[in-house]
Design brief:
Layout lengths: L5 H9 L4 H8 L18 H61 L4 H64 L1
Length: 174
Amino acid sequence: MEYENPVIEHYRNIFPGYADTLEKIIYPSIEQPDYETKELNKNSTTDVIEKLSAGKSKTLKATVKELLNEIEIRKGLNSGLNTKINDEICKTKTYLHEINEICQRRYDNEDLKFGRRRTQLENRLITLEQEKRQKQKEFWKDSMFLKKYLMGALADYWTVFGRENLFNENDAQT
């Protein structure tokens, strides 16, 4: 049975078709050439191009990793904020329920005080729901912004990788 990385599986759902590239960037295999340790022939134009593209490739890999980390941080932050807001909503609903229970059992002038408190709690509930929707909207905007840059970095990476393959094929033919 082959080990499946949950992070890669998560991104396989978000970015179908790109997960293999993400996996190569996040967990590079031993088979990929490391241009820093490879001895370069100073007279070969292909070696100079490989060295330049290797630097660009490393930069793009680091960019992709950082963007993926930022997306994960945003998810964690959003989850934490949603939990806090949901806890406050739950507390407010509990207080409202308690006030309704008290008001159903007794009939006196205290009902006016509870009525004002009930109104305050209902307003608080509406405010919390609005805040929750606003935070979800901000999370969506941040995520789309980061995903846009992630896709741009992946496109650049594929361009550099394609050039490397082209030069490697030309070098093999000569």
